Amino acid sequence: MRPIPTAFHIGPLEFHTYGLGLAIAFYVAWRYLVARVRAREIRTDHLVELGIWVVVSSLLGARLFHVLTHWSTYSSQPFQVLEVWHGGLASFGGLIFAVPTALWVKHKRYPELGILEGLDIAVPALALGWAVGRLLGPQLMVAGGGHATTSWIGMYYQGQVGKRIPVPIIQAVEDGALFFLLILIERRLQRASEARASGVSSPTGALTAIAMVVWGIARSLDERLWLGQDGHLGSLLVQIAGVALAVGGLVIGTVVYRNWRSYLSEPARPAVPGPTQLAGP
Asked: Cα(165)–Cα(182) distance, rounded to whole angstroms?
């Protein structure tokens, strides 16, 4: 069986499926984020600026983190650092650069929006973008598979010998499941709030905490089970970053839960007739 093509031509122009797939993923995540912002009647005048900063910073951070964790490869061939069309973007590097950048732009353009409130709006869009991106990004790049396998689930990838565990497909399923989990929890929390008092929002930070825990654990296990190499520094750093993200999510989740439980212990107020705030798009 032949590997999945990683490039195609239209006339004299060559297009790499990896880059095209990531562009589609960014677009899907962006459109869904805009829909979520509009559903909450938040102004959108600076969203394009925010999106540009996030895309640029995430790409730079993802590439830098990948290069640093695979320095033994790039140190002997430094020009390959610029060959992003062959793949090589680390999710954690993108997060490390993009999240502070997004918070900085939010502080400048949307000072009225709380940090956790803004993250709760963005996190489901990120999960959706990751799901699409894994399926259309690493799945279609050179050496995109995981460990070698003889299982029936194995697939062939360019640049790798023999069948490989289709980790991008597995991660797309994981991220897609996380997306639906977040939407389900968001709507249930909103209904619980509205049952007590009309217009009361769901606990701020809940979606952020859940996403950090689930995604951090899943990414760390993916690296440990299917992608990483024993003793490889880059693999170890990814696993540590995943655990650290999950721990951070647990801390945020604990605080959010305590505040929410304290709110639920208060006597319920009678609902006030009027339009309710939308929980999502």
From this structure: 27
- Please state, as a whole number, how many other Cβ atoms lie within 10 Å of the Cβ of residue 71: 12
Give me the long-range contacts of 147-153 (CB less than 8 A, separation at least 24).
147/226, 147/227
The residue among 171, 175, 167 whose CA lies nearest residue 144 is: 167
DSSP 141-166: STT---SB--STT-B--TTS-S-B--
Q: For 1-37, b where at least 16 C-beta lie within 10 A, e where not — what string?
A: eeebebbeeeeeeeebbbbbbbebbbebbbebbbebb
Tokens encoding 5: 């093509």
Q: Which amino acid is at 100?
A: P
First to last CA, the chain: 42
> Model's pTM, two decimal places?
0.81
* Half-sphere exposure in the Cβ direction for 278 (13 Å, CA): 11
Cα–Cα distance, 43 to 30 (Å, whole number): 15
Domain boundaries, the chain: 7-262
According to DSSP, residue 14 is labeled E
Q: Is 191 in contact with 206 (CB distance < 8 Å)?
A: no
Q: What is the DSSP string of 185-211?
A: HHHHHHHHHHHHSTTPPPPTTHHHHHH
At 41-61, the pLDDT tens digits run 888 888 888 889 988 898 888
